[in-house]
UniProtKB/TrEMBL annotation:
Native organism taxonomy: Bacteria, Pseudomonadati, Pseudomonadota, Gammaproteobacteria, Pseudomonadales
Name listed for the protein in its UniProt record: FAD-binding PCMH-type domain-containing protein
Listed cofactors: FAD
Family stated for the protein in its record: Belongs to the oxygen-dependent FAD-linked oxidoreductase family.
Keyword Lyase assigned: no
Organism: Pseudomonas fluorescens
InterPro entries reported for this sequence: FAD-bd_PCMH, FAD-bd_PCMH-like_sf, FAD-bd_PCMH_sub1, FAD-bd_PCMH_sub2, FAD-linked_Oxidoreductase, Oxid_FAD_bind_N
Gene Ontology MF terms in the entry: FAD binding; oxidoreductase activity
Source organism, top-level taxon: Bacteria
Domain (FAD-binding PCMH-type): residue spans on this chain: 1-165
Keywords associated with the record: FAD, Flavoprotein, Oxidoreductase
């Protein structure tokens, strides 16, 4: 049974009905969970996608959103006000899962992770009680939902910080595959000495000509001259196919990657954290992409530093607060190309190969339930407290979101 919840009131009614009849429940916000945890057989599915109201307080630089709002909906809404908040890299991702999972995004180096910009939230607990939480009200719950995922309750609404940044300087350099190693080395060096004004990411993809390419994208939020110099240094590597940079509106920057992971495909995802992109790691990545099982697959790398890593590891449930690279391995295929086993095997083989140089753990929002070794380290020392809070707020295990340590 699917119940389309158009408001917090209908969500409450549907939840109470399902729990009164002791029916299993799962929460479907935008359906972007690649493991399908938002849809389960023989369950009451509470669909929050129609709960997409947004209200802004320009004077306070705050915005309130309901639990079904997507990143693109919020970004498009804020465009009219020339304001931004920290959102993710794909427009169809739900803000609820993004915020509660931690929240990497292009502005994190300047303003912190998504969860760091959560001011307050209304949460529907598994027992049916709706509670307000912030630093002073239900502080343990507020701590847990900032990085521990939707394991403790349903995000009914949230209040977020807003910012009025200047126009950004953004650029990308497209490299032929022969220059991939040199470009990755240049990127790695740039990220290790980067200020909080610089965000950089890498994409290994198959280009329009059907050949693999490497794209390095950089965003500067301050210091135009510094940004131009860094871009010129990058563009001087090898023989770029294309290099383009310029001033851009912040909301346009946040929309650049919309649609890169379209619905309707099969997906397998792997992820890992790295202190450095060593020569060995770079070689492993390049060799693996050469051996990809699908031309729709990709490998994305970004670096987390600046304000996002200036927060104490125990300040929120998201415990990875030292500068690090995150590698995201997306195995992707069309539904009519088989059952996906060969593509899943490609992702899992690469993930295993990278584990020899990776840091313990990984971005929990993208870890599968069976990755017990990574899950055990994904939250650092916060894992013990998260397990305790799970038993307190959801003793019957009604909600199953991103994996928690056992």
């Amino acid at each position: 049974m699917i119940v389309r919840c158009a408001s917090p009131k209908t969500l409450q009614l549907a939840w109470d009905m399902a729990r009164a009849q002791e029916l299993p429940v799962c929460i479907h916000s935008t359906g972007r969970d690649w493991r399908g945890r938002s849809l389960k057989d023989n369950s009451v599915v509470l669909d929050l996608s129609a709960m997409n109201a947004i209200k802004i307080d320009v004077d306070a630089l705050e915005v309130s959103i309901e639990g079904g709002v997507t990143t693109s909906q919020l970004n498009n809404f804020l465009r009219d006000y020339d304001l931004v908040t920290v959102i993710g890299n794909e427009g169809s991702v739900g803000m609820a899962g993004f915020l509660m999972g931690g929240g990497y995004g292009p502005l994190m180096m300047r303003y912190g992770l998504g969860c760091d910009n959560l001011i307050a939230a209304d949460i529907l607990l598994p027992n049916g009680e709706k509670v307000f939480c912030d630093d002073n009200h239900e502080p343990q719950l507020f701590w847990a939902i900032r990085g521990g995922g939707g394991n403790f309750g349903v995000l009914v609404s949230a209040r977020l910080r807003l910012y009025a940044p200047p126009a950004l300087y953004s650029g990308s350099v497209v490299f032929p595959w022969k220059d991939a190693a040199a470009a990755l080395e240049c990127y790695e060096q740039a990220m290790h000495c980067a200020s909080e004004a610089l965000f950089g990411s890498v994409a290994m993809v198959v280009g329009p000509a059907g050949k693999p390419i490497l794209v390095v994208s950089l965003i500067w939020t301050a210091g135009l001259e510094q940004g131009i110099r860094a871009f010129e240094d990058l563009a001087a590597v090898g023989d770029p196919i294309n290099a383009k940079a310029g001033l851009i509106n912040p909301t346009d920057v946040l929309a650049l990657t919309d649609g890169k992971l379209p619905a309707g495909r099969g997906y397998e995802v792997g992820t890992g954290w790295f202190d450095r992109l060593s020569t060995s790691t770079i070689s492993t990545l390049i060799a693996a992409f050469d051996a990809r099982s699908s031309d729709l697959s990709s490998i994305i790398i970004h670096h987390c530093h600046g304000v996002a890593t200036a927060v104490a590891p125990n300040a929120t449930a998201f415990g990875m607060r030292k500068p690090h690279f995150t590698a995201l391995i997306y195995g992707s295929w069309l539904p009519d190309s088989g059952d996906g086993k060969v593509h899943s095997a490609w992702v899992n083989t690469l993930n295993a190969a990278l584990s020899t140089t990776a840091l313990p753990g990984g971005y929990a929002n993208l870890l599968p339930d069976g990755a017990e070794e990574q899950i055990a380290h994904a939250y650092g020392e916060n894992g013990i407290q998260l397990a305790q809070l799970k038993r307190r707020f959801d003793p019957s295990g009604v909600l199953a979101a991103i994996p928690l340590p056992k």
